TrEMBL record:
Entry-linked InterPro entries: Glyco_trans_11
Pfam families, A to Z: Glyco_transf_11 (PF01531)
Annotated keywords: Glycoprotein, Glycosyltransferase, Golgi apparatus, Signal-anchor, Transferase, Transmembrane
Organism listed in the record: Clastoptera arizonana
Full protein name: L-Fucosyltransferase
Pathway: Protein modification; protein glycosylation
Catalytic class of the enzyme: transferase
GO biological process, one term: carbohydrate metabolic process
Length: 125
């Protein structure tokens, strides 16, 4: 996720706020919110769990980052904008950036970016 955050922070998108919706709040706190460079990352859903409100909020976002699962997928579909997601769950730090999200064949405006642990991102134009 941190690589995807950097893609949006440094890719000409202006100031960013990352709204995180997850059913594993402890993981988010331990892995995303504990990183001091992630002061722009916010855990949105609380213990009361309102998935309909969470999905409505995701639909209002300009862009999306998600890893797996239908909830994140639908949030990305409804939001529009660019979507960063994992390209292969067997290969660490490999992502695909969709300029617009779709369910069908790859489009000419997609590009695979492979990220090493200490590599700089190559941003898409």
């Amino acid at each position: 996720f941190n690589f995807a955050f950097e893609y949006f922070r440094n890719g000409g998108f202006g100031r960013c706020a990352f709204l995180v919706v997850s059913d594993d709040q402890e993981w988010v706190k331990d892995n995303l919110l504990s990183n001091k460079t992630n002061s722009d990352v916010f855990l949105i859903n609380g213990p009361e769990r309102n998935p309909h409100k969470d999905l409505a909020l995701l639909s209002l976002c300009n862009h999306s980052i998600f890893d797996y699962g239908s909830f994140g997928l639908w949030g990305a579909v409804y939001s529009g904008g660019e979507v960063v997601t994992s390209n292969s769950y067997g290969q660490a730090h490999q992502f695909i950036v969709y300029k617009r999200f779709h369910f069908f064949d790859p489009q000419p405006d997609e590009e695979l970016i492979t990220l090493g642990r200490y590599e700089k991102l190559n941003y898409l134009s």
